[in-house]
Each structure stands twice: as structure tokens, then as C-alpha cells.
Amino acid sequence: MPCSAMSKASGAVTLVSKCTIFPSQTSSNPDLKLSVSDLPMLSVHYIQKGCLFTRPSFSITHLIFLLKLSLSQTLTHFPPLAGRLLTDQDGYVYISCNDAGVDFVHATATNIFIRDVIGFLDVPDHVKEFFPFDRTVSYQGRFKPLLAVQVTELADGVFIGCAVNHSVTDGTSFWNFFNTFAEVSRGVKRITRQPNFTRNSILISNAVLKLPANGPTVTFDADAPLRERIFNFSRESIQRLKEKTNNQKWNFDEEINIVELMAKQRNDPLIQCSRTEKAAVNSTAEISSFQSLCALLWRAVTRARKFPASKMTTFRMAVNCRHRLHPKLDPLYFGNAIQSIPTYTSAGDVLLHDLRWCAEQLNKNVKAHDNVMVRKFVEDWEKDPRCFPLGNFDGAMLTMGSSPRFPMYDNDFGWGRPVAIRSGRANKFDGKISAFPGREGGGSVDLEVVLSPETMDGLELDAEFMQYVSGY
């Protein structure tokens, strides 16, 4: 469909054109039933994630043409993203792979430089304008595209932002699509990570999710005042933190190499690990670097919130169930295959015990979330089908999403790796944390932290936390 010209300005960003992109080949995929991991996401916003790049050497006109063409070709490998949601007469929700197409938006913000995106302590508000489908609830995928791509031309860069229906993808599937989109744009003829669309696991259920007539709504206040900041943790900072948590000196270089290899293998079946490497992970990673970092944040935010000792706090972590189920799901299974693991501890226990104790509480819950526990979560949901209650309902919750294992910086569209990763306004509330890999790799981590203004002020004054933040 030809693009329609647009001159509407929204703050710092001006929309130039918008059109529908269709798959380059007609889909033969059957309708895909939403799983017990997909359905709860009908009440949350579309995922909004994107990459900031330097400006390519060729013209923006050529860039837009290239991205439209490669998006069309990529959709042939991801036909569900070009479809729509439908509900049958029995109440089951499906993805209809009907080639209805996706939105493609071209925008300009030529008064914004790369430094204006990454050069401030807090994430600037104009970053939220780099994404389509702002505050769109996933249930609206019945009549709206399940995917939209926005390309925003900056003064010295380009931002490529994607919004994807969260009932259709989790982070693993989202970044596989984004990586493939970049791969096709580079001219790759045969993609390396073909998504798996099978629907034959325990996640596919006969339980029906009853929805209100007007559809579900988000369960948090999307207009509450918030501050959002990216905290960078270098490889060296993560090393020091892990050494402290485990109370001994680790061979950090060896561990990082092995853990990164294992993480990539979970998302890429082409990578193989030896028995020696797997044994080294099991013997070395008693408390992981990431669990150590989560414990550090948990303690600091609890201090900043100034709770009485008796106040119960919650730290939620999203875990990938693909490798936890038996039989295992394909690492490239397309859809949601995540569950949220809560860890409950009083504020007094969080602060009276040391960092290792807090990390151990997270560690034992993650380790315990095996095949039996995944299946129990499914059974419990089937007894009471409901949408996922996302938010900070008692003021004492932290919710960790995304993962530093996702290959976000592998998105080279043909002129270099991203400068930074950013997200939109979607699903932001006090206590929502997202973990990204650091651009320098090697085990570095960036935490996107969203807190109430007063809590963020306290976090920035927390000596234990800030000693590990790089470049502060």
C-alpha cells in the first residue's frame, strides 16, 4: 500500500508518512492458539523496544526503501506478526495469520542529536515519541496491527523502534524478530534463526479466559509521576559485585565466557556447549552476576522507600520456560514462554541481612522453578484464568523484565551496531526494571530503572548501590 504523507507534529517528533507493509509471500500458516503464557498479556501494553544508530552514509530515502523491503521479507518468516487476533465462538483466542499487514511509520526529529538521547541522567521524554502504538493494550490486536515499526530520523542518527503485541511475543521472540529484520536488511538470503510456531506443549490449554465486554485494561496508573534512568554497570563493577556476593575470588573471565555461551545457546540452537563448559557453569555460578545485581537493587530501593521493618516486599523476576519444561520447547519457540517468579521478604530481613542473603533468596527461587513448577503454574492458571496483574499494588514491589542475555546489540542493519537500546512508555510504573546487556559486552549490564521521583532520589544517594554504577 502506498504511504500516506503526514505533517502532524507531536512534541519533538514530526510524522512524515505511514503505510502498511505486507509479507513478501502469502502465508500458509494455520491460526495459532494463544497459550496460557500468551493470554495473561492481553491486558498489558504492546512491547516497545528500539535501537539508536549513527546516521548511515547513504540517504534517508534509500534507508526507508531498504527497511520497508526487508521488513516485508522478514514478515514472510514471521507470518503471525502480520496477522490479527480473533476469538472463536467458544472463547478461544487465536492469531489469524491472514497477511493483514503491519504499520510502518517514517518520522523526523532533526533537532534531536544522539547526545540528546543518551547524554542525560534521566531518559528524556522525547524518547517516548520514537515508538508507535503508545499505551496500546494488547487486546486491541483484534483490529490493530500486531506489529508497528517506526524509523525516526535524528540530526546525526536514526532510531528504529518496534511495538509488538505482548500476547503474541515475549522478549525472546521479539529480539529474534528484530535480529532477523536486521539480518535481512544486511542482505542475508537465508536467515539463521527460523522461529518455531508449533503449538503442542502443555502451554496450550482448553481453559477459556473470560474477558469483559470492552476488553481488559492495564492494572496500573499509567499517568503516575515517574523518573526513568539507565544505570550502567561495567564488566569490572559486575566482577566486584559478584565477588562480594559469593564471598570469594572467582575466575571472572572464565565464568563470563562460559555463561555468555550458555545464554546464547538457549536462544541459538546452532551454538553447542561441551560437557566441560556445562560442568563449569554448574560448579561456578552459585550466585549469578545478575542475581547479585538484583539483590543490590532490591536492598537499595527498599532503603530508599523507607519502609518499617515489618513491611513485606516483593521482587518479581520473569523467567524463560523454554528450557525448563520437559520435553523442552524449541529455543526459538515463537510466543510467550515466560512465568513471573515472586520472592517475598520483609523490609527488615532485606536490610538486616547482607547482600549474599538477599541474592540467595532469589537464587533458590529461580533454581526451584523447574519442569514441575512450570507445570504447577499452568495448572493454577487453568483453575483461575486471568490477565496478568502488572503494577506496584502495595508500594513495595520490584518487577524485573527483559534480560541482559538478549542479543540486542546484534542488530546491525548494514551500517554498524546500535549506539544504545531504549524502550517506550509501555508498561512503566514505580518499580518496573528492565535489564539490557551493556554495549561493551563482556558481562556488562544496563538497568533501566523506573521509580517514583522521591524513591529515585533516594536510590541515587545510596552508597552501596552507587559504588557499582559506572561513570557516576
From TrEMBL:
Taxonomic placement: Eukaryota, Viridiplantae, Streptophyta, Embryophyta, Tracheophyta
MF GO annotations: transferase activity
Pfam families membership: Transferase (PF02458)
Keywords associated with the record: Transferase
Species this chain originates from: Nicotiana attenuata
Name the record gives this protein: Acetyltransferase
